[in-house]
Amino acid sequence: MNVKVQPVEEVKEPVEKEKRALDSPQKKLIAGGAAVGTALLIYLFATQAISQPILLLIGLGLGYTLFHARFGFTSAFRKLMAVGNGEALRSHMVMLAVAVTLFAPILAFGVSFFGGEVSGYVSPVGVSLFVGAFMFGIGMQLGGGCASGTLYAVGGGRSIMFVTLLFFIIGSTVGAYHLPFWTEEMPSFEPVTLATSTGLGYGGAWVLSLAIFGLVALITLWVEKKKRPPKQAPVPSVRGWKRILRGSWPLFAAAIILAVLNALTLMTRGSPWGVTSAFALWGSKVAMFFGIDVSSWGYWQGANAEVLQSSIFADSTTVLNLGVILGAFLASAAGGLFRFTRITLRNFMASVIGGLMLGYGARLAFGCNIGAYFGGIASFSLHGYIWGILALAGTFVALFLRPFFGLSVPKPKDTFC
């Protein structure tokens, strides 16, 4: 496979820039971001349910954590499939292990901050899931990020990710329009959970889940022993207590924080962290503005009808997404790292294609790397595991496509970030 490999010297230069930037927090940007966050928090307190400002704060924590740890799903899958480096995927297993430990009692006993119903993300297994997850796997490797990665990269000022986000929204909207065909006309099985469908209960499902995560971690270690992949380049960091505010954070610490914040999300709004349903809402709102009868779509019938007619600030996923973007912005400014980046024709085209595949795939697969993979597995749903396997398969295919758009692919003996 002919691929464009990022030379070692090209990797060292951004690292050196980050080291210098850590000495210069962007104070004006921090002040501006804090002002916007405060204004939005006050608005939500004044106009929405009490859960909405709480979710904004949780979103801020998610975005801050994602950026400071450079916690990725796209890069984790690519490094494993390209060179056998499983360090980031092992951090996923830590995150999932903590998540199922917290989710099990919450789901079993219906623990909620506001007394509402609590339910996990459990979805059917069928053609829609297989096609959607596979598409998403390709899309995130071309678009440069997954759902959470797109949000935190936008917050960090990575210019090309604004293109990915725009077409992510378009793809998600088209996917919402087509979803009834995929769910009603294509074959599928009823949802399966390790807890209730197997008779194991939440305790047994928790034990089985931990065994699966441990097995995946062992497999990644075996693959590394066989392939001897390059090591992850260290991310520059300040020392002492300043590291909490300005980064960087260890992957495994971030994994634990993300799991805890997802559990808090579950107890606050009654469902786990999600991202892409808001994209379908935003796109559908724009379509309505231009006179398209979105309310007639099957996707916006039933419980979703009220969501479509309400303010976007009443949508908890929208509030979480805004929090993630703002949290990443504050983290990047605190580290002195917020800056817009260059867009080329080839990475523009990759972002257009990748964004469309991300949005469409997420709708078909009942979620993204957060809603389906993270939230689904944490909810003990079989579809979350299948999503991960198909997204890995899509990643493998994308390794052959990335070079056509000038995107690098890690190779053995190459240092990478």
Automatic annotation (TrEMBL):
InterPro entries (UniProt xref): Sulf_transp_TsuA/YedE
Protein name: Sulphur transport domain-containing protein
Ranges that cross the membrane: 29-46, 52-73, 94-115, 127-153, 160-179, 199-223, 244-264, 319-340, 352-373, 385-405
Membrane topology, from the record: Multi-pass membrane protein
Family: Belongs to the TsuA/YedE (TC 9.B.102) family.
Location(s) in or outside the cell: Cell inner membrane
Source organism superkingdom: Bacteria
Location, primary (coarse class): membrane
